[in-house]
Structure formats: structure tokens, C-alpha cells
Amino acid sequence: MNFHNVQFEASFGTMSQLPDSDLPEIAFCGRSNVGKSSMINKIFNRKALARVSSVPGKTVTINFFRLDEVRFADLPGYGYAKVSRSEKERWSDLMEGYFTSNRNLKLVFLLMDMRHPPSENDLIMLEFLRGSGYPFTIVLTKADKLSRAQQQARLEGFSQEIPDASGLHLTPFSAKTGQGVDELHTIIEQVSL
Description:
The protein is an alpha/beta fold and about 190 residues long. It has helices at about 35-45, 85-100, 120-130, 150-160, 180-190; strands spanning about 5-10, 25-30, 60-65, 70-75, 105-115, 135-140, 170.
């Protein structure tokens, strides 16, 4: 799979706009400013495939990308407080609609900031994914901000902070250094077969 050949397809801001799920999909979700867009750019080795911002809540639509016969969905971040109630409701409806609209969802990458314990919203999303039966893997972003010893300590911390953590796959990732990219490429290739 040549990851550089990915193409942007379209953005959709409301549930009624979402196209049918005619290809296998891999989704990226996580709280606002966790690094979803940066991760997408690093995985596909493209500087500006997904728009990156230091301002939380920048991704307000579901953005679709296509590589060969696989579609990737960059979902809006959850948990960002500095938007209007109506905007939060629109995001919530869009996310809920995405996950309940019979998508051909092969995998969800659930991103969490490695430097901190999972937020309440992270744990809610985790429980939703478990309950829905969607296959998922947890990606721990911003690993470059920690030393190797700190990363190991946080991995041990996550095993205590996430309920029923045994059996979950945690991948430390850095969009800056490329840590974890090869592992994520392998995961994507395996679920895309």
C-alpha cells in the first residue's frame, strides 16, 4: 500500500450530507487538539492533507480521504468547551450519526494524549466503542513530549486508568518524530485486506 497516494475526497458538516458507506472505512477520533490531523498527515507522509491548527476544535466536519479501496474519516474532536451549544449539538449529532449509520467501519483509531490520563470523554468514547463492537486501537499521541522512561511510566499509568485495560492495544505515536508510524501502517494494511 503506497500511503503517499491518498487523496482528499470531501467534507460533510451534517448527517444528511454523509454519503453511503460503499468502501471499507477507518476512522480517527479523539478529543479536540489531541493531534488527529497531525497524525493523518504523518501516516500519509503529506504536510497539509488534513488541516492542522493549534486552536482546539478546528475540525468541525467529517473529512474523508481515500487510498486505493479504503476510505479514511477524520472525525471532529469531542470535549471542546469554547464553542456554542448549538455547535456542540451539531458535532454530537454528526458523530452519533456517523457511528449509527451502518458504515462499513473496519477500524477506529481512538487517540489520547499520552502525557495525561484519559479524560472523562475519552473513557465514554472507549465504552461506546466497546459496546458497539467496532474494532479499535488506542493511539497515544504526543509521545515525543516524554522521555522513554516517562513513556513507560505513562503506559503503566494507562493500564490502571483505563477500565479493563488488559487486552487493549496501545500505540505510542509522535507526528514529530514518526514514532509509531510503521506500526500504524501495518495495522491499516492488515484491516484493509
